[in-house]
Every structure is written in structure tokens, then in C-alpha cells.
Design goal:
zinc, alpha+beta, transcription, transcription regulation, KDM5_C-hel, histone H3K4me/H3K4me2/H3K4me3 demethylase activity, 31 strands, four-stranded antiparallel sheet, nine-stranded mixed sheet
Length: about 1400
């Protein structure tokens, strides 16, 4: 939408529009009196008749002829007319000097000479403006853009056009004198020749020297008659002037008429003619005028007349009115007498034939022919027909035709009805603003009022409503459409224009309330010297003469007016009498025409009295202007009177008597209605006054209607108040929400209480309701105070809500209190959450914020929300930051995390990630402390603790500098283990490196006899310190990991070695006894396949068990005499000692303890010890030097029942030390040449001795090594060694396992019970008859103990709550520890066990 221009017209607000019902419309005066309090505030109002009220148009369109007025739009507006008058004066000034005025253009706009002249004058005049250089300021004030040097142009135009005129108007002396020289010092442009001869001529008359009368034509300035060709002759007075004597001098003689300065002054000083509208030269019929009007509007707007918007016409009208350069002329058929041409309304006996359906309009009160002369109208008492007031006037308008600002004659009402046509736009100002409007127009156009003081009564001047509104005058507007009335109220200025061709009719009327204003208007007219349309005093006297028939209300008004009139008349007559006027006579002024009895001075129509003089019988003056009659002596004056004062008093008394009853009643009613406080009467008094008005038939006027209305209101209020107090109000039931369906609001109750106290009558219920209202107001004040609190108490709000239940009133505070209660509860929850940061989680904050969003806005809530939102934002930020810091890859340093944690620690909220960050930092510091302690410790760290530290360090999301070093250390350890595994472990081996390096904790093979498990018994020595059980590899690994140093680890491994040796001793004995010749060798179960011996067999040198060659022999192996170990005994590749030492050195270089390292350390020590023992035993036994020897072909051993492919060392005759040495050498997981040499030596000795046994030495030499030797492994990098391939094939092992399962399926199901040592009272002391030295040793061991002991040769004395035993199924029936004889729990459950002694004895017996 385009923005309006700054000077574009802005429509004023609309006036009231009333739409009466048929009942209200029936009496026009009653309706007008009803709407008067509202409508008189705007001055004008519009009335739309009820639908269906459409009177017929009674004028003959073709016979109605009129001569319209000519209206030039830019001459209508006051300020525009002032400008035009000024331009006329300037043009006349220059025209009389023979120059035509041409208005210049500046910046493509016509220069406003009037505004330029006024601005220069306001600044102090031309000289001051030039001196102070204010031309730029004047240019800005005229609306020109700055910076374009417009000021210099304005100065030039002023000097050329306006300055001479202003000098002429001021009468300044402009002759060639010192003064003139000074005045011309500002003229800087020599081209400008100012025609300043006007005042110069006047000065010449005063200063020119007197010359003798001659017949020659001489110059009146210089007195010379020379240079006649340069003498100018005035066309007005024939005076002569030289062209060069004029100021400024003229170079040429003017071509047109030229006036001398004296004639110029005479012409310009002539008074202006009063402005008025000219009459058109053409007589129009209504039809012809309409055709002309429609054609004008259609051509002007270039569109059909009915399509032009009213807003566009309105804006264009006011633009044209203010435009000097656009001269638009329209015609207006105004003030056409209906008496001559006929009214638009039907009248009785008129020329227009009224249909029966329209006869109702003949007597209708809204018919303007009837309205002015109806009984309620005061104008009915005016005897003469006043055209335009009592008789309607007709108005035929066209587009832009207007009616200027005016008020109705005698400040009366007016009513205008638009019969048909396009709308009429009205503007109005209320009556109280009349003087303000007049003052504004005088201020803005003083020149017009100087020549025409009663300008506003001429209906020829208009002013833009926006201008008036800008000066504080209230203006209202309306568009009157066809069929609508517009009513103007007393002294209400109004104006307007027509939107197009239309026909309207108007008339004046006066009601009783107008009477005081009518008299005030007469005084105003007297001051303005304006004639009266009728005599107000005559009208009043006419009404007083009919006092008996007057309406009592009118009689009362007439009486009041007569009191004022008689008092003033008496004062004036006394004044005249004092002045010396003694001649008096009666004059029938009511028989004279109004123009024959007008005051010669003020033009007031005289009626009660006038003064005349005998010198001029036709002249008279009112008593106010007796001094303006003539120059004769006052004694010659005559006082002419219509009534004597004695005549007037009876007339006033008659009116008073008529109105007295009503006045007394009205006075009492007025006193009753206007009583205040305790003087108020009760409701019964009002009822009695109403009853009196009905009995005396007083008129239904404003006072009676007010009394009736007040009484009705009082009765209603009394009824409602009583119901409120009694609690019997019909609407006093509650809805589902606990609120009365029609509860009174506090404002309504307060208004009702005020209404009770504002009533003119006193009601007893008012104080009681006031007390209830006070309680409610106290509640409201308390509520407002609570609501104003920043953080109100929940309990306080709840108490207020509880109190509110006592008031059955709609309290606006209740919803706010409920809302505030929710806010308070929420704030309380926020406060509680804030005081407990440990429980203030992000979810809690989000929940509180979500709850707060649903609350009504409040500063405290918004602050809390802001704080909570800020806390949530900060918390989320630090939570996310903490999470990102913890998830960062690579991890951040502990310093970075500590700084972040320090910042986050001040946040009063529960932040899991921040807490996790703090915990991570704590763990990191603890880990670093532990790492520092580990680094500071002297000993080597254990692999498990190191691995645990690395795992824990990796789990800590912090960059830990020692962790990289530990991880690299772990990598080195892992590489060392891989290298060691490569060196020791066989291909596809199921054994672990630790299992290979450690002494065996479980000894046995799949071919061993089945053993029955027996319950263990308590240790016979209760005071013996318990040692950890080393029954499984995991126990060994755990024990090694728990050792604090290598010495403890060596002790543990030494213990394990002893058990290994014992176990293998028993295993070897058992297997040897099993392989002794028996009655039926087919019952034997040997090899991995657990079948009977057959074919070529192999016997393990270590476990002494037999194996089928096809099951375990590798075809690639040679059949040379090499010691052969079964797959179960050949546990590793047995690398050379140098490789093992290299591995140990590399481990020492790493500097970490691990079970495998301790085991390797012990293996090396065990190997070295074995070598030393082997050397010692070889020397003690006179063995040859241990060296490798060639093998011999396989032979059948003398003590087996099957054939073996290789030779084994026979055990018969072999000393125990040699056997243990050989067994331990075979158990070593290191390849030693001494083992092979010892094997060949023993084998060769066995071959040479055949059946002779090698007896063991009589004294056992101590070959035990120091079990507590410390060995610090500070090795270097690991050297990976490649293990040898295994000798046995995996498919043979699988075949052996299948054979074993088949044997197990055929075995008997008989099971031996296990026996718990705790349940045995004492084992039988009978011993086996076997003379085996091992049996003897076992029997002799602990023979004096209360409980029996294991008879095994090397009992390990197992400890614990339960110890498993196994009973021999041979002839001795002795009980053995399962661990001492190498029997597992599964073997003891499923197989028979025969001890070594029984096996040997049974073998000898079979022999």
C-alpha cells in the first residue's frame, strides 16, 4: 500500500449514526431530545429512518427551474483566498505601472509569493534577512530541499517583485537621499530595476521646490521641462515625470498605461469588495442540471459517476480547494425556496397527487414541511413565514459544489434530508467549540475578517478540517446517503460538499432547550451588527400572550426568558430616561416589516422599544445604541415602546401562573434528584412525585423522564441488592467448576454499589453492600500485594484462595492467584532443587523448564527460567565437553582434564560425565602414583601386576605418559613369550609355555590302571603351616604370581619338582609292574589305543609304558638306539641350553617377572644342578665320561613279554640315584648331550651285566640343589627359537584314543569307594608281605602316628580338609594318597589300582 502524501487529506472521525425504531421514529422531537446528550457533543449526527419509510418525491423534475451559484473552488478556502487576494494586489500594483506580473517557478514549482512575503516579514524584513543571511532558512521553511542554492533565487524574486510593493505599502522615503543609498546597498544585481516610484512621488510633493506657474510641462521631481522625449505623462492625472528622475530610472517609456505614484496610491488603497458567489448566467431545469453535473464528474474522473469512490472525491476536493494554480469552477443550486418551486415532500393540497399508500407522509412529523411548525417547536409562535427556517429550502448539488462553514440563523437546529442522488459529505464541530473555530479562522486568515467581520455568516468561506483539527478544534464527518437525515445542533458549525448530482431539502426548528441560546444569539448578533431573521422578543411576547394554552414546560421556559427580558428592558429604559429622553409613545412594531424596524447601528430587529428622532422619522436605533442615532439633542429623541412595563408584568405573571404548579413540582423534583449525601430522599418520595405528575398531567419532558428513569433504576437496584443480601438471587447456583454461572464481577458489584450511592434516592441496602464490597476490596488489595511479591509464599496464596470461597463474586484475582500458585510451587521446586545440587540432574532441569514454559509469564518465573536455562546450558555444555574429553582419541592430558574439571566443579548440578571426569582424574592420579611407586621400587614387577596396571591404565581415558612405556614393555614381554613358545612348544601342541617349563603337577598317561578315589584325611601334624595346593597348572601359575620375589618362586617350583619326581617314580614303578610277564598278556592294555601288546612295540624311557610302534612311531624316525619318549613325555622341542640361556638373558633385559620367566629361570637352574649332579654321580659310580655314543640294534628285554624296537635301560640293579638322575634328565625340557651319554652308558652297562643289578650306593650322597637360590632375570631382548617337529603323528594319537574308548566300554562297572581319612579311626597295621624296599620305606614312615600314613616311598604329605586316597586292588590292600602314586580322581573311579610291590610280587610269582 502506498504511503499518503504529507499534505493529503485525512478524514476526521465519524459522527454518531442513529437508527430509531418505529416507536422512536413516531415523535421526531422526542427522539431528537433523546439523542441530544450524545449528538450535541459532535455537533452533527445522522439518522437512518426505519426500513420502509420512503416518502415519494413530490417535485416536478421538468418544471423546476433555478439559477445556480458559481463556485471557484480555490476561492472558497480562507487561506487560499488570502493568497489570491494578495496576488491580485501585486498584479494590480505592477499593472498600474505598465508591467504584467509573471509568477516565477522555482524547482519546477510555482513560487508561493504570499508565503515568501509572510516568512520574510516574520523574520524582520528584507534588510534583516539579507544582513543575517537567512535566505537558506526561508527556503527550508518553504519546503525546498537543502543544498541547491534556492535561497539566492528566492532573494532575487523577492527583490524584483515583492520588495517594491512592500516599500510602497510602508510609505518609506525612497528618493535619492542618504537613506535611499543605504537601502540600496543590499542590491547586488544591477539588472534588477525596482519600480519604487510610488512613494518617491509622494515625497516629491513634500520636498519639491515651489516653481512658478508656467504653461510648459515640467517634471514634478526636478522642476525642469527639458528633454521632453523622456517625460512621462500619467494616464490618471496628467502629471509629468522624467524617466531618469524615477527611482529606479526607466530606460524606455512603458508601452501600456502608466500611473504616477500618486495615482498608484489612490488605486491600490481602494477598499475591497465583499466576497460572494456570482449567479450563473443560465437557468437550469433539474434534468438539464443533472446532465451537466454527471458529465462534469464523469469527464473529471474519467470513469462512470457511480464508480468513483467517495474517498477519492473527498481527497480531490480538498486538494483543489487548496491549489492556487488549479482553477476548477462548479455550480450549486442552493437556497431554492420550496414555497415557490414546491417541496420534495408531499404537502396537502399540493400539485403532486399522493397515492393512498403515501398519504401517511402528508402529516408525518419527519416531513420537513411539518417539522418546523409542530407544537413542540418554538418557531410556531413566529408569525411570519421565514423562508429557510420555517419553510424548507431546496438544494441541488453537483460534484465539488459545497456549503461553507456556518451556523444556523439564531443558532437554531437544522435538519437536512437527501431525497435522492449521490452522497453529501458533512463536517461538523460541536457548539461548545464554535468560538474556538472562529478564533482559529481569524488567526489563520485575519485579512478576510478585517474587511468582513461577519465573514462566517456569509457562507462563502471554507477551511480544511485537517487545519482546524491541527489547532485543536474537534471535527467530525459523515456521508449522507439518499433517504437519510442529518441534524445539526445549536451553534454547531458545519460545512460540506456534494459527491455528485443530488437533491436535498432542509429546514430549521427550535425546541424548548434552545430558548436560552436564542437570547444569547441576539446579543451576539448585536455585537456583530448582524440582522435578525425574526425578533426574539416578539416571539416571547406572542407566547406570553397565549399563556393559557402553552405547554407547562414551555410556559416555564418562557417565564425564565421573560424575567431576563423585562429586567434588561427596565434597565435600558431607566438609562434612556436618565439621559434626558422624556418623549414616549406606543409603537405597533409587530405591524411593521422587519427591515423597517432595524437598528441603524447593529441592525437588530426592534420590538419592545426603540428611539427615534424628529429629524429623520425613518431612522431608529435600539436602546443600546442611542448615541448613534443622530447629532440632535437627546431631548429631541422619542422612546417608542410596544408594551409598557406595567403591560409586561401581567403577561409574565400569567405565564408564571401557568408554569407555577409545574415549576413547584419541577423544583421539588430537581431538588430531590440533585440531593446529596444525607439529604437524599427515600424511594417512596420518588413514587409520590411520579404519582403527582400523572394526576396533574404534566408534560412528558426530560425532567419527568429522568424522574421516571431514576425511580425505575432505584426499584431495580433495591430489588437486586435485597436479593444479594438475602442470597436469593436466581442465578446463584454453581456450575461444575464451582463458579456461579452468572456471578457478578467485582467491577460490577463496585459499580452497582456506586450506582446505589449515586442514585438520587437513598436505599437501606447500600451500606450493607458497601461493607461486603470493602471486604472484597481488602481481599483484592491483599491479593495484589501477594501477586506483586517477587517470590510469594505458597501457603499465603492458598490461604487467599480459601478466603475467596466466602465471596460469591467473580474475582479477577482468582485466576491470577491460581496461576501465581502454580508459579510459586514451581519456584519452590526450583529453589529446593537448587539447594540440593547433588540431585539436580539435567533431566530434572529439563523437566522444570518444561513445566516453567507452561506457566504464565512473570518476572520471577522468567528470572528463574533464565537462571535455570543458563544452568542447563552451562551444565549441558560441560557435560558434553566432559563426555567429549573422555571420548577423545588420543586422550587428553591430566592437566587439561583437571582444568576442565576444576571449571565444572563450580556448577551446582549433578553431572554424571563431570563426575566421571573427576573419578577418571582420581583414578589417573592413583594410577600415576602407583606407576611412580612401581618405578621407584627396587624389585622387578610381576607380569600380572604390570598387565593389570596396563589394563587399568588403558581403561582410564587420560593420556598417561608411563602407560606408553608399560605398553611397550608388555609388547616386549609378549614377544618374548612368543619367542619362548616358538623355541619350546611343539607344532600343534596343546600345552602352554608355562605348562612345559614348570615341573609337572599331574603325572599319568592314558594307559595307566584305573584308580578309585579315596577321601583324604587330616594332616597328622596340625601345627604345620599350610602351603597352597599345587594340584593344577592354574594353582601353580597363581602361586608364582603371588610370590614376591624369585626366591619364593624358586621354592615353589622346587616343591613342584619334588612332587614331579615322586609322581614319576610311582608311575614308572606302576608301568614296570604292569609290563612284567603275566599269565595272560592279552589282558594288558597299553599304548594310547589301550589295546593289548602286539607286534613291534616301543617303551617310553621316562614313564616306562609300552606303545604300539604303528600308533606312535614317526616313519621318518630312525631305528637307531636312541632314547625314546612317548608323546605324553615328549612335551617340548627341548632346545639347546644356549638358546634357553639367550631367552633368559633377554627376559632379564626386559626387567619383568612372569611365571614363565620364573619357570625358565628354575629350568636353567635345574638343568645346571642336574649337570652338576650328573658329574658327581658319574664320578662316584665310576661311570665313563658322559659323551654321546652310537646306538645298538633293538633287542628283546628279558623282563617283558613283548618285542620292543629299541632298547631301554633296565631298572633291575639300577641304583636309585642313577635312576633319579636319568629320570630328571629326561624331565628336563632342555636338550643336553649328557642325557644321551648317560642313557648310552647305562644301556651299555645293562647289556654287559645282563641280569646283574646295579646296586645303589650304600650312602646317599646329597645331590640336592639349593632350593632357595635367587635368580634375577635381567635379560635382554628375546630370541625366538624354532622348535623341532614332533616325533609322533596326530592320527596315531587319535587311533589310540579310540582304542582306549573301546577298552573302557568293555571294562567292568564295579567301583571302589573312596574313603575319607576323617571317618577312619585307624587303618589296619597289617602290611604287605612284599619285601620291596619302597614298601618297606612306606611302612616304616610315620609308623608311630595315631593315624596311618601313606606307604608310598616318597609321600608328599598332602594337607587340607579332604585328601583323596586309593586302595590297592592287589594282595596288600594298602591305602595310598592318590597324589603320591600318580593316580587322578578319574583313574581311581574307573580303573583298578595295583601298587608297585604287588605288581613286582605278582610278576615273580608268575615266573
Amino acid at each position: 500500500m502506498s504511503q499518503p502524501r504529507p499534505d493529503e487529506f485525512k478524514p476526521p472521525p465519524e459522527c454518531p449514526v442513529f437508527e430509531p425504531s418505529w416507536e422512536e421514529f413516531r415523535d421526531p422531537y422526542a427522539f431528537i431530545n433523546k439523542i441530544r446528550p450524545i449528538a450535541e457533543k459532535t455537533g452533527i449526527c445522522k439518522v437512518r429512518p426505519p426500513p420502509g419509510w420512503q416518502p415519494p418525491f413530490a417535485c416536478d423534475v421538468d418544471k423546476l427551474h433555478f439559477v445556480p451559484r458559481i463556485q471557484r473552488l480555490n476561492e472558497l478556502e480562507a487561506q487560499t483566498r488570502v493568497k489570491l487576494n494578495f496576488l491580485d494586489q501585486i498584479a494590480k500594483f505592477w499593472d498600474l505601472q505598465g508591467c504584467a506580473l509573471k509568477i516565477p517557478h522555482v524547482e519546477r514549482k510555482i513560487l508561493d509569493l504570499y508565503k515568501l512575503n509572510k516568512l520574510v516579514a516574520d523574520e524582520g524584513g528584507f534588510d534583516i534577512v539579507c544582513r543575517d543571511r537567512r535566505w537558506t532558512k526561508i527556503a527550508l521553511q518553504m519546503g525546498f530541499a537543502p543544498g541547491k542554492a534556492v535561497g539566492s533565487h528566492l532573494r532575487g524574486h523577492y527583490e524584483k517583485i515583492l520588495y517594491p510593493y512592500n516599500l510602497f505599502q510602508s510609505g518609506a522615503n525612497l528618493l535619492v537621499t542618504e537613506c535611499y543609498t543605504v537601502s540600496l546597498c543590499y542590491f547586488t544585481i544591477p539588472v534588477l530595476k525596482l519600480h519604487l516610484s510610488v512613494v518617491m512621488a509622494l515625497n516629491s510633493l513634500q520636498t519639491a521646490p515651489c516653481v512658478p506657474q508656467v504653461d510648459l510641462v515640467v517634471c514634478l521631481v526636478c522642476g525642469s521641462g527639458g528633454e521632453e522625449d523622456r517625460l512621462l505623462l500619467c494616464d490618471g492625472c496628467d502629471d509629468s515625470y522624467h524617466t531618469f528622475c524615477l527611482i529606479p530610472p526607466l530606460h524606455d517609456v512603458p508601452k501600456g498605461d502608466w500611473r504616477c505614484p500618486k495615482c498608484l496610491a489612490q488605486e491600490c488603497n481602494k477598499p475591497h469588495e465583499a466576497f460572494g458567489f456570482e449567479q450563473a448566467y443560465r437557468d437550469y431545469s433539474l434534468r438539464a442540471f443533472g446532465q451537466m453535473a454527471d458529465a462534469f464528474k464523469s469527464d473529471y474522473f474519467n470513469m462512470p459517476v457511480h464508480m468513483v469512490p467517495t474517498e477519492l472525491v473527498e481527497k480531490e476536493f480538498w486538494r483543489l480547494v487548496g491549489a492556487i494554480e488549479e482553477d476548477v469552477t462548479v455550480e450549486y443550486g442552493a437556497d431554492i425556496a420550496s414555497k415557490e418551486f414546491g417541496s420534495g415532500f408531499p404537502i396537502p393540497n399540493g400539485k403532486f397527487k399522493v397515492s393512498p399508500a403515501d398519504e401517511k407522509y402528508l402529516k408525518c412529523g419527519w416531513n420537513l414541511n411539518n417539522l418546523a411548525m409542530m407544537n413542540p417547536s418554538v418557531l410556531t409562535h413566529v408569525t411570519a413565514d421565514i423562508c429557510g427556517m420555517t419553510l424548507p429550502w431546496l438544494y441541488v448539488g453537483m460534484c465539488f459544489s459545497s456549503f461553507c462553514w456556518h451556523i444556523e440563523d439564531h443558532w437554531s437546529y437544522s435538519i437536512n434530508y437527501l431525497h435522492w442522488g449521490e452522497p453529501k459529505t458533512w463536517y461538523g464541530a460541536p457548539g461548545f467549540a464554535a468560538e474556538q473555530l472562529e478564533e482559529v479562522m481569524r488567526k489563520l486568515a485575519p485579512e478576510l475578517f478585517e474587511s468582513q467581520p461577519d465573514l462566517l455568516h456569509q457562507l462563502v468561506t471554507i477551511m480544511n478540517p485537517n487545519t482546524l483539527m491541527a489547532h485543536g478544534v474537534p471535527i467530525y464527518r459523515t456521508n449522507q446517503c439518499a433517504g437519510e437525515f442529518v441534524i445539526t445542533f445549536p451553534r454547531a458549525y458545519h460545512s460540506g460538499f456534494n459527491q455528485g448530482f443530488n437533491f436535498a431539502e432542509a429546514v430549521n426548528f427550535c425546541t424548548v432547550d434552545w430558548m436560552p441560546l436564542g437570547r444569547q444569539c441576539i446579543d451576539h448578533y448585536r455585537m456583530l451588527h448582524r440582522y435578525n431573521v425574526f425578533s426574539h422578543d416578539e416571539m416571547v411576547c406572542n407566547m406570553a400572550s397565549k399563556a393559557d394554552t402553552l405547554d407547562v414546560v414551555l410556559a416555564s421556559a418562557v417565564h425564565k426568558d421573560m424575567v431576563t427580558m423585562i429586567r434588561e428592558e427596565q434597565k435600558l429604559r431607566d438609562k434612556v430616561k436618565k439621559m434626558g429622553v422624556f418623549h414616549c409613545k406606543e409603537a405597533k412594531y409587530d405591524h411593521l416589516q422587519d427591515d423597517e424596524r432595524q437598528c441603524a447601528k447593529c441592525r437588530t430587529t426592534c420590538y419592545l422599544s426603540a428611539v427615534t428622532c424628529s429629524c429623520n422619522s425613518g431612522a431608529l436605533v435600539c436602546l443600546y445604541h442611542i448615541n448613534d442615532l443622530c447629532s440632535c439633542s437627546v431631548t429631541n429623541y422619542t422612546l417608542n415602546y410596544r408594551y409598557t412595563l406595567d403591560d409586561l408584568y401581567p403577561m409574565m405573571s400569567a405565564v408564571k401562573q401557568r408554569a407555577e404548579l409545574y415549576d413547584d413540582w419541577a423544583s421539588l423534583v430537581t431538588e430531590t434528584l440533585e440531593a446529596k449525601l444525607e439529604k437524599k430522599k427515600g424511594l417512596p418520595v420518588f413514587r409520590s412525585l411520579l404519582a403527582e405528575s400523572e394526576s396533574r398531567r404534566f408534560p412528558d419532558n426530560d425532567l419527568l423522564r429522568r424522574l421516571r428513569l431514576v425511580t425505575q433504576d432505584a426499584e431495580k437496584c433495591a430489588s437486586v441488592a435485597q436479593q444479594l443480601l438475602n442470597g436469593k438471587r436466581q442465578t446463584r447456583y454453581r456450575c461444575g467448576n464451582g463458579k456461579s454461572c452468572s456471578q457478578l464481577t467485582v467491577e460490577e458489584l463496585s459499580s452497582f454499589v456506586r450506582q446505589l450511592y449515586n442514585l438520587s434516592c437513598s436505599l437501606p441496602q447500600a451500606p450493607m453492600l458497601k461493607e461486603l464490597l470493602n471486604r472484597i476490596e481488602d481481599f483484592q488489595q491483599h491479593s495484589e500485594k501477594v501477586l506483586a511479591d517477587e517470590v510469594p509464599s505458597v501457603a499465603e496464596i492458598q490461604s487467599l484462595l480459601d478466603v475467596s470461597f466466602d465471596f460469591d463474586v467473580e474475582l479477577p484475582e482468582l485466576p491470577r492467584l491460581r496461576v501465581r500458585l502454580e508459579q510459586a510451587r514451581w519456584l519452590e521446586g526450583v529453589q529446593q532443587a537448587s539447594t540440593q545440587p547433588a540431585s539436580l540432574t539435567l533431566e530434572t532441569m529439563r523437566r522444570l523448564i518444561d513445566q516453567g514454559v507452561g506457566l504464565a509469564p512473570h518476572p520471577s518465573v522468567e528470572k528463574a527460567m533464565a537462571r535455570l536455562q543458563e544452568l542447563l546450558t552451562v551444565s549441558e555444555h560441560w557435560e558434553d565437553k566432559a563426555s567429549s574429553l573422555l571420548k577423545a582419541r588420543p586422550p587428553h592430558s591430566i592437566e587439561t582434564l583437571s582444568a576442565a574439571a576444576e571449571k565444572a566443579s563450580g556448577i551446582p548440578a549433578y553431572l554424571p560425565s563431570c563426575l566421571l571426569l573427576k573419578d577418571t582424574i582420581r583414578k589417573a592420579r592413583e594410577w600415576l602414583q602407583e606407576a611412580e611407586e612401581l618405578q621407584a621400587s627396587d624389585g622387578e614387577p610381576m607380569m600380572d601386576s604390570l598387565s593389570d596396571m596396563v589394563l587399568r591404565g588403558q581403561a582410564i581415558q587420560v593420556h598417561l605418559e608411563p602407560l606408553d612405556r608399560l605398553e611397550s614393555l608388555m609388547v616386549e614381554v609378549q614377544e618374548w613369550k612368543e619367542s619362548a613358545a616358538t623355541t619350546f612348544l611343539q607344532k600343534d601342541s596343546t600345552l602352554t609355555l608355562l605348562e612345559v617349563l614348570c615341573p609337572r603337577c599331574e603325572v599319568g598317561n592314558v594307559g595307566s590302571p584305573k584308580r578309585k578315589p579315596k577321601k583324604g584325611k587330616e594332616s597328622p601334624k596340625n601345627n604345620k603351616k599350610k602351603t597352597p595346593r599345587l594340584n593344577t597348572l592354574s594353582d601353580v601359575e597363581k602361586a608364582l604370581s603371588e610370590t614376591k620375589d624369585s626366591t619364593s618362586a624358586m621354592a615353589t617350583l622346587e616343591e613342584l619338582r619334588v612332587r614331579e619326581m615322586e609322581a614319576f617314580s610311582n608311575l614308572r614303578a606302576a608301568n614296570e609292574s604292569k609290563l612284567l610277564p603275566t599269565a595272560d598278556c592279552m589282558d594288558l592294555r597299553v599304548c594310547v589305543c589301550q589295546k593289548a601288546p602286539m607286534g613291534a612295540m616301543l617303551q617310553c624311557e621316562l614313564c616306562r609304558d609300552a606303545f604300539h610302534s604303528v600308533c606312535v612311531r614317526d616313519p621318518s624316525d630312525s631305528c637307531e638306539t636312541q632314547l625314546w619318549l612317548c608323546p605324553q613325555c615328549q612335551r617340548s622341542e627341548k632346545p639347546p641350553l644356549n638358546k634357553v640361556l639367550s631367552l633368559l638373558a633377554s627376559l632379564r633385559h626386559i626387567g619383568v617377572r612372569l611365571p614363565e620367566g620364573d619357570a625358565l629361570h628354575y629350568l636353567v637352574e635345574r638343568t645346571v644342578n642336574w649337570q652338576n649332579r650328573a658329574q658327581q654321580i658319574s664320578q662316584s659310580c665310576n661311570l665313563p665320561e658322559l659323551e654321546e655314543r652310537p646306538g645298538t640294534p633293538p633287542t628283546l628285554t628279558s623282563w617283558t613279554v613283548f618285542y620292543t624296537e629299541q632298547r631301554c635301560i633296565p631298572l633291575q640293579g639300577l641304583s636309585r640315584d642313577l635312576e633319579e638322575l636319568m629320570v630328571e634328565g629326561l624331565l628336563l625340557q632342555v636338550s643336553l648331550p649328557e642325557v644321551q651319554s648317560l642313557f648310552h652308558i647305562l644301556l651299555d652297562r645293562a647289556s654287559s651285566q645282563h641280569t646283574n643289578r646295579c646296586m645303589s650306593p650304600t650312602q646317599d650322597e646329597s645331590t640336592d640343589c639349593d632350593q632357595h637360590m635367587q635368580f634375577n632375570s635381567q635379560g635382554n631382548n628375546l630370541e625366538t627359537m624354532t622348535g623341532s617337529e614332533k616325533k609322533s603323528k596326530r592320527h596315531l594319537e587319535r587311533e589310540g584314543s579310540d582304542a582306549e574308548r573301546r577298552v573302557k566300554d568293555k571294562k567292568h562297572s564295579h567301583k571302589r569307594q573312596k574313603m575319607n581319612k576323617k571317618n577312619l579311626q585307624r587303618r589296619p597295621t597289617s602290611t604287605s608281605t612284599s619285601s620291596s624296599p619302597r614298601s618297606d620305606f612306606s611302612q616304616s614312615d610315620d609308623s608311630d602316628e595315631e593315624m596311618a600314613v601313606c606307604p608310598a616311598e616318597r609321600c608328599q604329605l598332602p594337607e587340607g580338609d579332604e585328601v583323596d586316597w586309593v586302595q590297592c586292588d592287589g594282595s596288600c590292600n594298602q591305602w595310598f594318597h592318590q597324589v603320591c602314586v600318580g593316580v587322578t580322581a578319574e583313574m581311581a573311579e574307573k580303573e583298578d589300582y595295583i601298587c608297585v610291590s604287588c605288581t613286582l610280587n605278582d610278576g615273580h610269582m608268575r615266573k
